[in-house]
């Protein structure tokens, strides 16, 4: 828990009046939501231990590590120079207790929703031979990378392709969650800290691969592994939840029997199905008419 949050809690405990009371209520609800999501993750880890890697349901957690810079030198001049950015997305398989790190640099791609979805597709490609049909994803609450319509559309596409029967996404509460990916990142950072210099990305890959006793599976992403997942938005009629905001959703469920819908649920138990509806393609005559009017 951050020092700022600790001070904020202390302020609320000492504060008086309606404003302080309302803030205390919000904080209580926030902490309750965090505990609920963490309990779901703990339960999933326990289920995975009992079921083993052969289960028809696969549980994973995904998270992006803080940007790695290269070269990493113990030199004051080098500290203020422009560095080369290197990105690491961890997909931790709870069934096999194995961390998978997907690496790429800033010349290939950024670190937004397209990149996160592309790494997820790569992981599925590498593991789909295991035969699992249901996927549960635990992710952080970052809107730009994970919690957005593009992740939902990417998962719906996988259902349309027949790869899965269901996909569920559980979003953790910012500042209160601790996922298996964080354990992997801790080991990686300890390994990096002990290294006096890192001259190129290949050295990062080696360090990550050997960061834990059991080893980490490293996947070097290629340019052709990245896809424009955002283009899927042009295929649907975008509709948002009516009962509460999309950003307030905590659990998103997608099933093969409702290929154009997603089910969204918030912390307070309120939920609904959202119909995205396939966008109708224009006929040739309609396109010609539009061209004449323009």
Automatic annotation (TrEMBL):
Keywords per UniProt: Coiled coil, Signal
Disordered: annotated span: 273-294
Signal peptide as annotated in the record: 1-17
Keyword Secreted: no
Keyword flag NADP: no
Ranges of Polar residues composition bias in the record: 285-294
Biased composition annotated in UniProt, kind: Basic and acidic residues: 275-284
Pfam families in the record: DUF7869
Coiled-coil region(s): 17-47
Transmembrane segments: none
Domain DUF7869, chain residue ranges per copy: 100-259
UniProt-recorded name of the protein: DUF7869 domain-containing protein
Organism: Meganyctiphanes norvegica
């Amino acid at each position: 828990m951050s020092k700022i949050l600790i001070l904020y809690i202390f302020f609320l405990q000492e504060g008086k009046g309606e404003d302080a009371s309302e803030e205390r209520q919000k904080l209580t609800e926030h902490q309750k939501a965090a505990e609920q999501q963490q309990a779901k993750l703990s339960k999933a880890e326990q289920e995975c231990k009992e079921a083993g890697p052969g289960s028809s349901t696969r549980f994973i957690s995904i998270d992006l590590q803080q940007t790695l810079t290269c070269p990493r030198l113990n030199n004051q001049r080098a500290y203020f120079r422009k560095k080369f950015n290197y990105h690491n997305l961890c997909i931790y398989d709870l069934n096999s207790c194995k961390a998978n790190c997907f690496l790429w640099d800033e010349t290939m791609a950024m670190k937004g929703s397209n990149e996160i979805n592309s790494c997820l597709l790569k992981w599925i490609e590498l593991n789909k031979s295991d035969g699992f049909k249901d996927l549960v994803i635990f992710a952080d609450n970052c809107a730009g990378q994970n919690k957005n319509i593009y992740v939902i559309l990417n998962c719906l596409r996988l259902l349309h392709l027949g790869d899965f029967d269901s996909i569920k996404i559980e979003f953790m509460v910012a500042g209160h969650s601790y996922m298996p990916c964080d354990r992997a990142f801790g080991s990686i950072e300890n390994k990096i800290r002990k290294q006096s210099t890192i001259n190129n990305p290949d050295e990062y890959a080696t360090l990550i691969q050997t960061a834990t006793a059991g080893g980490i599976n490293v996947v070097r992403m290629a340019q052709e592994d990245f896809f424009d997942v955002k283009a899927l938005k042009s295929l649907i009629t975008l509709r948002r939840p009516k009962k509460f905001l999309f950003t307030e959703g905590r659990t998103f469920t997608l099933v093969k029997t409702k290929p154009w819908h997603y089910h969204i649920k918030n912390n307070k138990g309120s939920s609904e199905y959202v119909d995205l509806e396939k966008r109708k393609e224009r006929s040739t005559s309609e396109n010609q008419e539009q061209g004449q009017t323009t």
